[in-house]
Write a structure and sequence with these properties.
two-stranded antiparallel sheet; single chain; mainly alpha; Helix Hairpins
Length: about 210
């Protein structure tokens, strides 16, 4: 689909055929993009509902985890608690895969836990640390699910915006200009045909007069 709107359209039959074909192509692209927009809107709405449910799911467990962590800070103090955290190896591994939703790459997160033994002594901590650790590990899968939905929403919304821009360009710029070009070529060709008809009629009259004068 070529667009040469910056130059004057040649009023020829070949150009008329080319412009009509370009218009048909533009309308087909518009239909495809319009269908894509509808699917994007539907999937985006689904993701928003899932993200909302995921946020509600993590609200209470995350609040409990933060309360347990706050209790550990109060009982042990920030220096000791941060020292325990610094000496504790990571126990969570995340595998990031890509899945496609309506031609949009969306990250899919797979969470796995490593077996890690005790990394701190009982004398250096208390039950609040264990409780905070358990609560955090419990809520992590739900946090990852919520993050996955949020990322999908952002990417789908970005693709929806891009699709809408293309649709706007087709609807308000490209297709109208093709239509204007077609009307201009048709009117010019019709005017030429009328002029040619008048000219041929005039020539015929002259020939008929000469024939009658013989």
């Amino acid at each position: 689909m070529s667009v040469s709107f910056g130059t004057k359209v040649l009023p020829t039959k070949i150009e008329l055929i080319k412009t009509r074909r370009s218009l048909q192509t533009a309308r087909r692209v518009q239909k495809v993009l319009d269908d894509k927009r509808e699917v994007l809107l539907k999937r985006l709405d689904e993701m928003i509902q899932r993200a909302s449910s995921a946020r509600e799911e993590i609200f209470q467990p995350l609040s409990d985890a933060y309360l347990a962590l706050y209790d550990a800070y109060l009982k042990l103090g920030p220096l000791r608690l941060e020292g325990i955290a610094a000496n504790t190896p990571g126990i969570v591994e995340v595998e990031v895969n890509i899945k496609r939703i309506v031609d949009v790459d969306v990250p899919s997160l797979k969470l796995s836990e490593k077996e890690v033994g005790m990394t701190y002594g009982f004398a250096d901590s208390n039950v609040a640390v264990d409780r905070a650790s358990r609560q955090m590990r419990k809520v992590l899968p739900a946090i990852f699910r919520a993050a996955e939905f949020e990322s999908a929403i952002f990417r789908l919304a970005k693709e929806l915006e891009r699709t809408q821009r293309l649709l706007n360009a087709l609807e308000y710029m490209i297709i109208p200009r093709y239509e204007v070009s077609i009307r201009y070529i048709q009117q010019t060709l019709e005017e030429r045909e009328r002029e040619e008809f008048v000219r041929l009629k005039h020539v015929k009259m002259i020939l008929e007069r000469k024939e009658a004068a013989r």
